[in-house]
Amino acid sequence: MAQIEEVTLDGMTHLVSDRALQGETMLLNMGPQHPSTHGVLRLLLELDGETVLAAIPDIGFLHTGVEKNMEAKTYQKAEVMTDRLDYMNTVGNNLAYCLAVEKLIGLDVPLRAQALRVILAELKRISSHMVWLGTSALDLAAMSDFMYCFREREMILDILELVSGQRMMTTYIRPGGVWRDVPVEFEAAVRNLLKILPNRIDQYESLLTKNPLFIDRTVGIGKISAEDAVNWGLTGATLRGSGVNYDLRKFAPYSGYEQYDFEVPVRIEGDVRARYLVRIAEMRQSIRIIQQALDKLPMGPVRSNNYKFVPPPRSEIGNSMEALIHHFKYWTEGFNAPKGSVYSAVESPRGELGVYLESDGGPKPFRVHFRTPSFDNLQVLPVLAKGFLVADLVAIIGSVDIVLGDIDR
Amino acid sequence: MSENNSVVTENLVKQFGGQATEFAGEISVMIAVEKFADAARAIHDEFKFDLMSSMTAVDYWPEENPRFHLVYRFTSIANRQSLNVRVPIAAYAPTAPTLETIYHNANWQEREVFDMFGIQFLGHSDMRRILMPHDWEGHPLRKDYPLGYEEPQFSFNFDEIDVRKPYAKNRRGE
Q1: Which end of chain A is more exposed for a tag (fewer CB within 10 A), N or C?
Q2: Which residue among A3, A11, A356 places its CB closest to the CB of B155?
Q3: B64 CA to chain A: closest CA distance, Å?
Q4: What pTM was computed for the model?
């Protein structure tokens, strides 16, 4: 019987300086139950006084083996697990996975479904940014923004509940379209939200953007140059805060993003404040996208009628024998995808969310890999935090906007 | 973004003797592992793919040679191109060169592949497990690693697990 080992520094001596080994500097454990680490992230800090000399992230506390589990499920059933990756961006995860499946089997999506996907993905982006804004401001002791952000986030979750029956884990987007058409109340609810949101974002900003305390805590903190940011694989607002214009909605448009008129906010400073300003501006751009998508929301079907890959509507099952067969085959065997591999990526609120999907010709994915933005974005933390105070480290973690479910998968 | 990177793929194939395949509009270049370190350098410096978007591995067990494929995806932000590279790896003592010095984010990506597939990256500065506990046995995403009937390892149920997972015991050297 094996003994429970005491955790020592043995395997990590190459990551700290010699001074730490001689006891001149302090090694401090931060997390995994620290509120400012936004989840279960453990950091081993080497400190000289209050200055961070080295930060060693320790991840994996939320590892659930999603990629392995998906290999044992059919394509349509495996999708449910994608919600659980990045729990702040459930709709975007579904979208990334469905785009990969559709690319693999060559399935077209009706225009109405594409527009609905865009609307929901952008709503979820706003709600994710609200959680980020609330919690990262909370880390810097700005309490009130948290309350206001969660108030509006609740309205977005209500809309998601309206369309899917679920507040967070919606699985509303399915391969070949969406689960079913939105209810009649949907448009009014979204328009109501769009009417009040710009004002509310101004309110959030009025508490922070020109607040001298907030400026002191964010300007010049956690800087990274454009070249380094790309080399470290940063994506999303963390990259755009360093002056690199890389947004997959423009770079490789999917789901009809090319038809909407919006800007990609970019700042060149590369510090915590730049990332803050980029995300605030992104919320406003998302509102523009939703407005346009809603104004020209086409009528028509919301699911592909290729019943090999998409379940037939309930109404047809009673009348058509083929529909019944398709329904039965779909939910028991699933569908066979052609042998090959695809990579498809979407812009999640945190950056490039990529899905690598490989098929061996059977009904289950042979290999699924999620290239999650938080994984690469967290990796750069030791570089960003070096030489700053512990209090700044908290601001930096907040500005990178990590979701641990996204990192550990 | 265009998948129109035919010039790049042609040059890669010419320089490093790879083999290009196409599926669903994506071109993948297969490069031998011996030439991959030089090829990656050329991909970064010469062909200006400045972002390593994604990297992972696939296990084709019970195939032996190659058993694994490393799958890379490079993106060139300035040229709006993307490039897929696959590197076959044999089953026995799988190793590959590290890209850490070319793309910094390869550090964690390669640690994850090591953790999940047991592929060693030569020259890597910090080859530790990343997601699984540091004393975990086996590499979960390998195809011969069982999915079901797997209890979490605790100190009291090691004997039970040894029955179902004999290779774990062999590796401990008991």
Answers
A1: N
A2: A3
A3: 17
A4: 0.89
